[in-house]
Amino acid sequence: MIKQLLGKIPRKSSKSAGNGENGRKNGKNSKAVANTVSKGSNFGVDSYIGYERFNNQPGSDSGQNNGTMISMKHQNGNLGLYSYEVLPGFKDVPNSQKESLFFRKLKLCSIVFDFTDPAKHVKEKEIKRQTLLELVDYVTSANGKFSEAVVQEVVKMVSVNMFRTPSPQPRENKVVDGVDLEEEEPTMDLAWPHLQIVYEVFLRFVASSETDVKLTKKYIDQAFVLKLLDLIDSEDPREREYLKTILHRIYGKFMVHRPFIRKSINNVFYQFVFETEKHNGIAELLEILGSIINGFALPLKEEHKMFLVRALIPLHKPRCLAMYHQPLSYCITQFVEKDCKLADVVIRGLLKYWPVTNSSKEVMFLNELEEVLEATQSQEFQRCMVPLFHQIARCLSSSHFQVAERALFLWNNDPIENLIRQNRKVILPILFPALERNARNHWNQAVRSLTLNVRKIFEDLDPELFNDCLLKFQETEKKEDETKARWEARWRRLEEMGAQKTAGNYNTTACFPWKPF
């Protein structure tokens, strides 16, 4: 039916004899396209019109064109014929035609190729790569403000290439502890030779001083930002690094989007902590936040404090903490340095999520605790020191030598040692039993040596307090020995009674054997 409709369209007569051959070539191509349509393919009339427009462009000759016609599937799902020609460089055209050429190059780069087959469209892929490199140079060296049409076309080209359907390769043991996950090799996107340059174009465009924020914010809107945040879950670390930089640039340049970006990152953290515990880009998001938190004005808003309590502190809960602990610790420390009153909140939050059976995670907590305590004032320290040093005492008593050793290293930090010295009357009675048992019985020589050093510090600092603690420990130890002896005697009596009863039952059974009915 479509063929019949196309047949009814009156053919244009050639204006000159010179165009007759070209018209016959176009007519043959049109018939080929019409045949494709009539066979029931997905190739649409819009693509046909675009093909005709290309063939009729001034200066283009379909018979002598350097490019090729390829059948490609666009992002909207429609199959179409697209022309891939080597467009002239920006240096080869006058300034008045550069913007028009820029548009044509953007449209050329809006076609996405399949990289799963390396032997497919090799020439066209290379043309696109070279064209993308030219776009990078053009955006970088732009002298005038980008027009709204240019902004729209750039965002459209970037969206078509970046916002794609992920095709992750199958991976085993995806949900594992952070240490094991780090040993796995990341999945690399096969399309990265093109994607990297697309990201570079967009990064240069966002960072350019010629990009007008008022015009651009209509196209780089909240929906666009959400798609970028979805992409940061990519398994390719190279892509996550670009997205981190771009999101940071957008946050710095588009002030209207700042609250929305913070809220969206919050939602990503909530879903990660309380639902999935699966996300590849938590470290990158925390690196963005580290820079954002550093720029928070004082006094801190209540919104920012709630973000610390509800989003950052619970991030200590997941098993894969090792994947993002360093930027998380930096964010936490930034809050304490900006507002020292938050130290009590942070330390109690760490105690709430303190690991029980994961020794490597416990060492990470002790590292972070040292950084927080360095920025803690005496008044805030006194509010949380009792539960804090009960936990440190448990770490000193740990049979895992790295945990015990890391806890003892806290005394090598001068600000922390000063806080302990000032509050020794409360802290030493809590720590003394763990120190005394370590000095006597710990299996690791390094831990015993460090324990004796810490013990000597307290003894030299306050001999009277040290002797009181030693006497109390000896009394407690004596009572424990007495209690242990009583329990052992009671168990012996129970065993003797059980043995007598068993012997009595045996004799009775021997005299009166049981006979079933």
Automatic annotation (TrEMBL):
One CC-aspect GO term: cytoplasm
Single Gene Ontology MF annotation: protein phosphatase regulator activity
Keyword terms of this UniProt record: Cytoplasm
Domain of life: Eukaryota
Keyword Iron-sulfur: no
Region (Disordered): 1-35
TM ranges: none
Matches recorded under Gene3D superfamilies: Leucine-rich Repeat Variant
Location within or outside the cell: Cytoplasm
Protein's GO biological process: signal transduction
Function statement: The B regulatory subunit might modulate substrate selectivity and catalytic activity, and also might direct the localization of the catalytic enzyme to a particular subcellular compartment.
Family the UniProt entry places it in: Belongs to the phosphatase 2A regulatory subunit B56 family.
Protein name, as recorded: Serine/threonine protein phosphatase 2A regulatory subunit
Organism of derivation: Linum tenue
Phylogenetic lineage: Eukaryota, Viridiplantae, Streptophyta, Embryophyta, Tracheophyta
